[in-house]
Amino acid sequence: MTLALRLTELEKTFPLKGGLFGGPRGHVHAVNPTSLEVRQGETLGIVGESGCGKSTLARMLVGLLPPTSGAIEIEGEPLSRADPAAFGRKIQYVFQDPISSLNPRKTIRQIMEAPLKHLHKMGAEQRAARISEIFAAVNLREEFLERYPHEFSGGQAQRIGIARALAAQARILILDEPVSALDVSVQAQVLNLLADLKTEFGLTYLFISHDLAVVEAVSDRVAVLYFGSVVELGPAERIFARPHHPYTKLLADSAPVVGRPLTAPEAKGTELPNPIDPPSGCAFHARCPRASEKCRQVTPELFDMGDGTQAACYHPVNTE
Length: 320
Ligand SMILES: Nc1ncnc2c1ncn2[C@@H]1O[C@H](COP(=O)(O)OP(=O)(O)OP(=O)(O)O)[C@@H](O)[C@H]1O
Description:
Rossmann fold, eight-stranded mixed beta sheet, alpha/beta, four-stranded antiparallel beta sheet, binds adenosine-5'-triphosphate, 10 helices
């Protein structure tokens, strides 16, 4: 099995300014030490409520944020932030809001050319050929190349965002809520396009979303994130149909409708814990109907559930 991506104990804390003697007042624990493997050609879904660390994780993976500790390996090689071009050739980010992520003063051709020039040092002729090829692959007309980002609809702009990521010739794409800002009718078109491109270019996807139904539909495996930690990991067809972590169950029970955002209102309280002062033990214990004294004291690691899934829980459900 070839690995596209391996994260080892990857962690991100943000210091809060304003402490005594110029030091930090504390730290926001955005992503707790996380280890995860993504297989070549796989779509790994990452779901979780707002504030659980999805974007911070994604930003570390594409080099937009330095990790506090831990390591990232791509295709067996450690990533060095000292070489951003090598980073960009291997892994690219597709943003949620396609229009505002494209430079408004540049034509689409200029936007598309940048990665080919800077990451691949391609000459003009080679660039033009490559851009035509990618534009055809994402079903956009070549005449669009001379226009500016604001001239496009959300769906077209997202195709351009995807085309730009493909221009870097990276084989791993981080798709951060790639269809959340689009009309429902356009969402399906973009999801179908992503599926086609994956086969055509042999891509690996990390698909980040708070929309459970979309993640279940597009992913091979899903990681459920709660308060900066993976609490359950398993095959997409099983993880919501037969969840083991009480938090995953809560999400699955409360978001049965396509397109409905992820919230877990039926929990005991809807508040996430304070990321500056994380609770001891399992971060979900205060909201969990099954919590015991052990849960309040000791943080559970990911345990094998015997059916291809893992859950960080001492009292998992659906185990019979
Ligand atoms: N630059 C920053 N400085 C301080 N805290 C931050 C910073 N960026 C993120 N955080 C905090 O880190 C935690 C995780 O945030 P993150 O944006 O990664 O979550 P998310 O799951 O992507 O949320 P959303 O779906 O709302 O984008 C939150 O508590 C957030 O307030």
